[in-house]
Amino acid sequence: MMDYKFLDKVLDHIVSETKIDYNERTIFLPFSFSPFSYSCYSLQLLLLFSPFSKHCKEVYGLNKGEIEYVWDEYKKIIKEKLNNGL
């Protein structure tokens, strides 16, 4: 059984470490070495899962199911921020 309270804290932490520069239209991810244009964010989601997964496993000790939950929620939050300029 997943501890959603813990997973939501992990999610909040990863989101807080994600920096979006709306002027430069770039996004800095805590699990990626270089920033990239967020206009390509949707196209790069498949490429980002592997480093995200590794980050969650190494830093937070999450298993596959927990990583998938956090990843799905993370994508929703970041997409909303990008679409709404939050």
Describe this structure as you would to a colleague:
The protein has helices at residues 4-17, 41-60, 64-84; strands at 19-21, 26-28, 36-37. With 86 residues, the protein is mainly α. It has a 3-stranded antiparallel beta sheet. Helix 1 (4-17) crosses helix 3 (64-84) and helix 2 packs across helix 3. It is globular and about 40 Å long.
SSE topology sketch:
Elements lengths: L3 H14 L1 E3 L4 E3 L7 E2 L3 H20 L3 H21 L2
Antiparallel strand pairs: 1-2, 2-3
Helix pairs in contact: 1-3, 2-3
- What percentage of the residues does DSSP assign to strands (E)? 5-15%
Shape: globular
Rg for CA atoms: 13 Å
- Which class best fits the helix and strand makeup? mainly alpha
Arrangement of strands in the largest sheet: 1-2-3
Q: Output mean pLDDT.
A: 88
Helix content: 55-70%
Describe the main β-sheet briefly: 3 strands, antiparallel
**What series of H and E elements makes up the topology?**
HEEEHH
Number of strands: 3
The poorly predicted ranges are none
Span between termini: 33 Å
Number of helices: 3
